[in-house]
Amino acid sequence: MCIGIPMQVVETGDCYAWCEGLGERRQIDTLLVGELAVGTWVLTFLNSAREILTVDDAARITAAVQAVNLVMQGGADIDHLFADLVDREPQLPEFVQQKSIREVPGDC
């Protein structure tokens, strides 16, 4: 399984950037996202930037990765990492909310 890691650009070069995130500093290939400014957040997979992130998205993804790490180490107290989800009812995506059961194909 490959997990995307949010990293922030701290230095740029030709087709790469030095990025920091989750306590690491890595040289990241930027061919898929183009030239990046210092301070930009990117989602990285296998040392390659695949997507430019907003600050809020980077924070949410970082918290989720931290939660996975905690659970893998036997921790159970992860609610603080999902403050935007705790005490909230799950919401279906809008396009699913608009469909009625009769529109769903199949023999149910």
Walk me through what this model shows.
The protein is globular and about 45 Å long. By secondary structure, it is of the alpha+beta class. A five-stranded antiparallel sheet has the order 3-2-1-4-5, covered by helices on one side. A hairpin with a 2-residue loop joins strand 4 (41-45) and strand 5 (48-53). The longest helix is centred in the middle third of the chain and has 18 residues, at 55-72. Helices cover 20% and strands 30% of the residues. It has two helices and five strands. It has helices at 55-72, 94-97; strands at 5-13, 16-21, 24-29, 41-45, 48-53. The model has no long low-confidence stretch (mean pLDDT 85).
Short note summarizing the structure:
This protein has helices spanning 55-72, 94-97, and strands spanning 5-13, 16-21, 24-29, 41-45, 48-53. The chain is of the alpha+beta class and 108 residues long.
| Low-confidence regions | none
- Gap from first CA to last CA: 33 Å
H-E order: EEEEEHH
Estimated helix fraction: 10-25%
| Main β-sheet description | 5 strands, antiparallel
Average pLDDT figure = 85
List the helices and strands and how they pair.
Blueprint: E1 5-13, E2 16-21, E3 24-29, E4 41-45, E5 48-53, H1 55-72, H2 94-97
Antiparallel strand pairs: 1-2, 1-4, 2-3, 4-5
Question: What brief labels describe this structure?
Answer:
alpha+beta; 5-stranded antiparallel sheet
